[in-house]
Design brief:
alpha+beta, Aspartate Aminotransferase, domain 1, 6-stranded antiparallel sheet, 3 helices, 6 strands, globular
């Protein structure tokens, strides 16, 4: 686990800390080639410089975000924002279904929209995988 992500998780109180520790462990295992870091104050995993998954402690819950998640065709994920992102929200670690999360992470590696170059492409997202 990236040391900054460990610090992020350790700064949280339970149950949020347990949720984030579980999420980071499964994400690290499922995306071994990903670069992880704190980006815009939250843990994010990147493949070839493109953000694919991350999470954030919000006021009432922990938000798991997949930047290209609307293209996964998964009933457990909800659309988030005006691009291709999808989310899942957690209030307790028992809500994390590891099999679902691993399936979503596999799709995150296979299905990607080019967020890395969104500014260069003037706000247009192109499919890269």
């Amino acid at each position: 686990m990236h040391p900054d992500i460990r610090k992020y998780n350790e700064a949280l109180n339970n149950p949020d800390r347990e949720i984030c520790e579980q999420l980071s462990q499964i994400i690290d295992e499922a995306l071994p080639k990903a670069e992880s870091k704190i980006w815009h104050r939250h843990p994010v995993w990147f493949l070839d410089g493109n953000p694919v998954a991350g999470y954030a402690k919000l006021k009432k819950d922990v938000q798991l975000l997949f930047w290209s998640g609307q293209s996964f065709d998964e009933p457990g994920l909800e659309a988030e924002g005006s691009f291709k992102a999808a989310q899942k929200r957690y209030t307790d670690v028992s809500q994390i279904v590891a099999a679902d999360l691993r399936r979503w992470l596999k799709k995150a590696a296979e299905i990607q929209w080019d967020y890395k170059n969104i500014v260069k492409n003037k706000g247009v997202l192109n499919r890269i995988k």
